[in-house]
Write a structure and sequence with these properties.
Layout lengths: L29 H4 L4 H13 L27 E9 L5 E6 L7 E5 L4 E9 L2 E11 L6 H12 L13 E5 L5 E2 L6 H5 L6 H20 L2 E11 L8 E2 L2 H4 L4 H4 L9 E9 L5 E7 L13 E2 L2 H14 L5 E10 L6 E2 L5 E3 L21 E3 L11 H20 L1 H4 L1 E2 L5 E9 L4 E3 L5 E3 L5 E2 H4 L1 E2 L2 E2 L16 H10 L4 H7 L4 E3 L14 E9 L2 E5 L3 E2 L1 H17 L8 E5 L8 E2 L2 H6 L2 H4 L7 H11 L50 E3 L4 E2 L4 E7 L14 E7 L2 E7 L5 E9 L4 E9 L7 E12 L6 E7 L3 E3 L1
Parallel strand pairs: 3-12, 5-6, 11-13, 26-28, 27-29, 31-39
Antiparallel strand pairs: 1-4, 1-8, 2-3, 2-7, 3-35, 4-5, 8-10, 8-17, 9-14, 10-11, 15-16, 18-25, 19-20, 21-24, 22-23, 25-26, 30-32, 32-36, 33-34, 33-37, 35-36, 37-38, 37-39
Helix pairs in contact: 3-5, 8-9, 14-17
Family: Belongs to the neutral ceramidase family.
GO molecular function, one term: N-acylsphingosine amidohydrolase activity
Protein name: Neutral ceramidase
Length: 772
């Protein structure tokens, strides 16, 4: 980025009102419309069975070498590295991942998305190293993780230290990025299959971010500190408080809030000059600020927080060049950024029902409201505001870090990883009672959706009636597979809608095998969760791991435990048994039955010895989950990233500005320019940009904004499919800190030639305009 902000105003807000897109039916309930239609289901299966999508070879990434003899470390020092790389895949014509809304097809870009990599190593033992990835994606996934591990292996011996046990792949859980890249069939169906291009953009960017972190490795120190995101910067609420109240009253009394308001920050500081290389933070808030009818790619609220923090670092004298700020999810399951609560959009002016979030018995009109919901801008203003609030709290903590932080004094770095099959897995509860988990299944409350994205038809949250819910949907469910009596009993009181763990035609619909992984750096332990842990699940899990670390003398000082996810293999939710009994969305989406959360806790605590300083072994690898990349089908040319051709209209040329900006504007205005376009799927411009704003400085045009900036929006529209025409609108929502001056808007594109099929780059410029 060429521009640097001397100040990021705390009250900067967007006040534009883009055209509304009619609301779509939401969340996985859309599977009711698509997956659960018998005719379409059979058609989908036939198509999948007949069309094999072979994953293309991965482009070679240049091999880097690192110093063979590290400087001698003093006590409390680590090898530290940070890196960041672009993972923005197809921004148009591909469904977004998160809401599973058939109508949420990308039309452009508001903010590029990234992989942020953090490497920590024991300077006295090259084999003891960890990689924590924070992807601006809906979740970590086994297909992506496999690709990352393969990419690292291909880089040669310098990267052999990074592998199955010590690479954690977490997602920020944003719901506004390109989809079609997950391993299992269920999430592929609404995105019309698997897109190799979408998948590869994430994998290659993640590997590149690790390369950059590896290349930056140097001796440094770590410290952590906590703050609360509350009061005027409150950023999350519990979207299922009725289920939360099912937890024991004496347990709830230990906590002030029904969600965790805390933010934990880990600071990476370079020893050579004392500069800060980056921060890795954990805070729980769903990435659902951008609404399900938004069709511009963003990193959602966590993307905003990282963006603001990294921009502030550009003028921070304590920050090293290349400063990276990663904001990882924590126990996010029942949190929401829609902090004004859930209201009925039916004209009644009433809040949704407390027990099941309905309005007049239906879910469709019950929606959570963000802090700026009245702006009617698809969640843009609320998203920015939630991200800004977390940034304000995090920045205040960072500014006082030396006086409030705790150093990580033990240089021991350890990790473990194993796979666990959760199908009828038996284990003891803390009181000694034997229980078991179940093959994966989703309940009726899952199809009811959430207040962040409500369901449809007659599905509602909180429905744990084991009697037939609706004869039609009962028939549809049975056509897919009929749960065995053992599965029904295991999952009780969940009424099973989709028995995905026992559906394998044409390949696995959902995971039964999950990653069990933890990382340790001194007294800091990181639980890596494959599921979205609810607030109380996360609290119990952290407390149990901390107690086990003390009892097994894993740490030399009081342990600090954080939880990051959803990671590695996406396994939906992990509600407490009490919340599971209510069967709201979170409980109905807890795949492995009522004891799933306790299974995770047991597996973490029973493997904790592998985090001991003297440990040199790993648990048994466990069963290998299915790798569906080569089996996954693409149902359309779009998923195969095939652009037929582009053409400019007669008399026009690519990049020509057909609608010019006005001659002058005031700060706060929206500046639009329209260009003759080409399909951005021709070139994702990774590490580059589709858009730019240039300012005339001392007679030379200087870039001051690009795709990374929240306020610069790229919208692509196909205007004639047969002739290959398209247009691009670039909108600059000028910020309060915009400097007066002369500017122009720039469009970078790539067109595909008819017949020949070659890709040619071009650039277009608007006329100049003045901002006074």
């Amino acid at each position: 980025m060429a521009h640097k902000y001397s100040e990021l105003p705390a009250e900067d807000k967007l006040d534009t009102e883009p055209l509304e897109i009619p609301a779509k039916r939401s969340v996985w309930a859309r599977i009711s419309l698509f997956v659960l239609s018998p005719l379409l289901l059979v058609t989908s299966i036939l198509v999948v069975a007949g069309i094999a999508n072979v994953i293309s070879g991965r482009p070679a990434l240049s091999q880097l070498t690192w110093f063979s003899h590290a400087p001698r470390a003093s006590d409390g020092q680590f090898l530290l590295g940070v890196g960041k790389a672009d993972i923005t895949g197809p921004v148009v014509e591909v469904e977004f991942m998160g809401y599973a809304s058939l109508g949420q097809i990308g039309t452009g870009l508001r903010q590029r998305i990234y992989s942020r990599a953090f490497i920590i190593g024991d300077p006295n033992n090259d084999d003891d190293r960890i990689v924590y990835l924070v992807l601006d994606s809906a979740m970590g996934d086994i297909a992506v993780r496999n690709g990352i591990l393969e990419g690292l292996a291909a880089l040669g011996s310098d990267y052999a230290v990074y592998g199955q046990s010590n690479v954690a792949v977490t997602g920020t859980h944003q719901h506004s990025g390109p989809g079609a890249w997950l391993n299992y069939l269920l999430p592929q169906i609404t995105s019309l299959g698997f897109s190799t291009a979408s998948y590869q953009a994430i994998v290659d960017g993640a590997v590149l971010s690790i390369q950059r972190a590896h290349e930056s490795l140097t001796l440094g120190t770590l410290a952590y500190a906590d703050t609360n995101i509350t009061g005027s910067i409150d950023a999350n609420i519990n979207r299922s408080p009725y289920a939360y109240l099912a937890n024991p009253a004496d347990e709830r009394a230990q906590y002030e809030y029904d969600v965790d308001k805390g933010l934990t920050m880990l600071r990476f500081q370079r020893a050579s000059d004392g500069l800060n290389m980056g921060v890795l933070a954990w805070h729980a808030v769903h990435g659902t600020s951008m609404l399900e009818n938004n069709t511009h790619v963003t990193g959602d609220n966590k993307g905003v927080t990282s963006y603001l923090f990294e921009q502030a670092a550009l003028t921070d004298p304590t920050a090293a060049p290349g400063f990276v700020a990663g904001f990882s999810q924590a126990n996010v399951g029942d949190t929401s950024p829609n902090i004004l609560g859930a209201w009925c959009d039916d004209g009644s002016g009433e809040m949704c029902t407390f027990e099941n979030s309905t309005c007049a018995g239906q879910t469709e009109t019950c929606h959570g409201r963000g802090p700026e919901f009245q702006k009617l801008d698809l969640g843009v203003s609320s998203c920015y505001e939630i991200g800004r609030r977390v940034f304000v709290g995090a920045q205040a903590l960072y500014n006082s870090f030396d006086s409030v932080s705790t150093p990580v004094t033990d240089s021991s770095v350890k990790s473990y990883h194993t796979f666990q099959d959760m199908s009828f897995y038996e284990f003891p509860l803390p009181n000694g009672t034997q229980v078991q988990t179940c093959p994966a299944a989703l309940g009726y409350g899952f199809a009811g959706g959430t207040t962040d994205g409500p369901g449809a038809f007659d599905f509602v949250q909180g429905d744990n009636n084991t009697q037939p819910q609706n004869p039609f949907w009962e028939l549809v469910s049975d056509l897919l597979t009929t749960p065995t009596p053992e599965q029904v009993a295991c999952q009780s009181p969940k009424p099973i809608l989709l028995d995905i763990g026992q559906m394998s035609v044409p390949y696995a619909w959902g995971p039964n095998i999950v990653d069990i992984q933890s990382l340790r750096v001194g007294q800091l332990i990181m639980i890596i969760s494959p599921s979205e842990a609810t607030t109380m699940t996360g609290r119990r899990w952290r407390d149990a791991v901390a107690a086990a670390a003390v009892s097994k003398s894993i740490t030399t000082t009081t342990p600090k435990v954080v939880l990051g996810g959803p990671a590695n293999t996406y396994a939906h939710y992990a509600a407490t048994p009490e919340e599971y009994g209510i069967q709201r969305y979170e409980g109905a989406s807890t795949l492995f039955g009522p004891w799933e959360s306790y299974a995770y806790i047991y597996l973490s605590t029973s493997n904790i010895q592998y985090l001991a300083s003297g440990s040199t072994s790993q648990p048994a690898a466990g069963p290998t989950p299915p790798d569906n990349r080569n089996a996954s089908a693409s149902f359309s040319l779009i998923q195969k990233n095939v652009v037929v051709f582009d053409n400019p209209p007669i008399g026009n040329s690519f990049g020509q500005c057909t609608t010019q900006p006005n001659p002058s504007y005031s700060v706060g205005d929206v500046i639009n320019a329209t260009f003759v376009g080409a399909n951005p799927r021709n070139n994702f411009r990774l590490e580059g940009t589709f858009t730019a704003i240039e300012m005339l400085v001392n007679g030379a045009w200087t870039q001051v904004r690009d795709d990374n900036d929240w306020s610069l929006v790229y919208t692509w529209t196909r205007t004639n499919t047969i002739l290959g025409y398209s247009s691009v609108v670039i909108s600059w929502e000028t910020e309060s800190y915009t400097q007066p001056g002369t500017y122009r808007t720039v469009y970078y594109g790539d067109s595909k030639t008819p017949v020949i099929g070659s890709i040619k780059s071009f650039v277009g410029y608007s006329g100049s305009y003045i901002i006074g």
